[in-house]
Structures are given as structure tokens and as C-alpha cells.
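Marked as duplicate of an earlier ticket. Keeping the data here for the record.
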Amino acid sequence: MRRRLHGVLVGALGLALGAGALLTGAGTASAATTVKTAASGTVTLTARGNSVTDASPFSQVSVSKACPADYQDSLTVSLVVPDGRESILVSNLTTGAPYSAAPITAPVPAASGNGTVIRSIATAFAVTHVPLADGTYPIHVTCANADKADFPEHPTSTGFISVTGSTWQVSGLPAPAATKIRLTPSPARHVQVGQPFTLTATVTRGVPGVVKFAADNGINPIGDPVPVVNGSASVQPPANTVPSVRNYIAIFVPADQLGHAQAYGTLDYSFVQAPSITLTDAAGNALGADPQLTAGQQITVSATGFKPSAGEKVDVAATNVYSILPALFPSTTSDAAGSVTNYTLTVPRFISDGSHQLVLLGESSLIYITFDFTTK
């Protein structure tokens, strides 16, 4: 581990040598850009009755595939209305959990209780303010982790029901074709607070539809659905005004929801403070730009601009300490605001004369901040 971190840090130091005195580097872990594919497991729905007002429509749900790792705690069963929104029929279904082996099978209680909420088909339409009309509707069976905040993905398989008047039945339509979505931000990985940024969803080409964007695990929608043009859709969310890490989702809703499944992409995006760094000597006096330091001198460093929220490990080094080789200091951790405060180090005893840079590097964001100094 120490050798790996040394390699990462030395690489960043090499970049810093040709850069300015204060800068931020490109990160790799502040935002996820993984391609997500809609699940294609076969859904089997067992009807408890045939009335749209039945309090518990299903007696059992099954899916031919196991839930993915980290999403095996519970199932949610949802009706999908024509505009692509999900309306819960069964939430927090845990009978038979963990859903780790195929096929997964979950008996559905006849009534809500023990943390499971069950609705009639009529109620699922009513809560979305969509009139109950004849037709065939997708039914989503979604795997979930009990900690939805830290595990926000939405692995889903799709079945169908048909509604006629006040009755319904399970539809024999085959599973819809899977689609893909890739959600990426610009600037990549992080942006300074108050600055604009763009989210782009790239979806399966040739499949018309819209993308719905939302923040905070889907709680806060961002604008209206965006039509897909040439395989992508973009939105510029409101700028974030405080250092934080926020979750964003994008849902691809195909125009033909009977033939193609929805796809769901998610990413965590960091909003960082503008980079800054200050050094003080042992007496608490601020050191100006490019100060001359001496071997054995104690200095205190404070810097802002790293990954906020849970923070990140920050590596510390100085360049050209042993001729062209850097010196590594003990790592520290940024706080919830993305700051490192009152980090104390001692200038190496055998430091070479000349120009140097102190470099602080965030391990997960790869944001790095430098401070020039000299020794003589």
C-alpha cells in the first residue's frame, strides 16, 4: 500500500513541477461514470385476485435472476404509469431475503405490516394523479439495500399487467429489451461551489425516449424530462453553494415501455471550495509567497479545496528534498468542508538547497494543492 501511494504521489508531484503555485488536479473517484444496464430477469407475478381495488394485488413475486451484491435486502414492486413514474404497490418486501440466489421468490402479505407497505392498483394510479385506464402497464421489481442513501442504484426487472375496466390480470408479454445509460458530469469528477456544471446521459442509440434527471437519490427533480437526441440528453442543474457531495440520478424512459426497459444511472458528485493554502511558522506568523525555510523548521499548514462531506485521505510531500527526490510526510484527512487544518510538519534536516513545492494530494479526488518555498 505504501509503495502504491508513493507512486501516485510522485506522479502528481511530476505534474506539479510544471504547474503554477496553486492548482487543482483531475480526480478519478468523485463521480461514477459506470454504464448501467436495465435488468432483464423474467418476472413472474402471482395474482391474489383480479380487482383493481384488491388491497394486495399479488400473493407472490418471482424473478429469474438473483439480486446483485449489496442489493439483496428487500424488494420493491411498482406500477409504471405512462409518463415513466413508478408508483409503489409493495415496498420493503423482505420475506425470503436475502435475495442472493436465482430464482428469487417472495411471498407477499395480504396486508401492510412489519415495515412492508402494500397498495391496490387503483391506489397506485390515484397517488400519481393518473386516471386508471384500460391498457398494459409495466411492473417493476427492484432490488434494494436497507441503506438506500449509500446504495442508491436501482437494479430492476420488468413484468406486465393488463387492466380492463375494474379488473386486471397478469400479461403474457415477454421481458422488454434491456437498455443502457451512462451518466457523466462536466467538469469531470468535481466542480467548485457556485460554478455551473452539466450532467449528460448517454443511452442506447436508436431507442427514442426521454431522460429524467433528479438530485439526492431522486428526491428533487431537475427540470422537465429531456428528449434523447442522437443517443444523449443533458441538463444543467442549479449550482451548489456549499461544499458537499450530492447524488444525482438519470432515468431513461423509452417511448415504447412495452418493448424496452427503463435504465437507471447514478453518480456522486463533489462540490469543492476554491483551492487555497496558508503556512505559518512556529510562532503563528503567516508565511508569504515563496518563503525561505530552514532545515528543521516547524511549519503549520492549512488548506481548502479537497473532497468534502465524509472527507478524504490527503497525502503530503515536498519536492526536490533529496536532490530530485521528494520527501513524504504522514497523511492527514480533510474535514466535512474539504479542509485540512493545522497540519504540522518539520522541514527535513537534510533538505537540498534550492526551490521546492509542498504538495497536498487528495487520494480519492486526486485534487492537489501546492505551495512554493526555497531553502538555502
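See parent ticket for discussion. The chain has three domains: 2-24+275-375, 30-38+179-271, 40-175.
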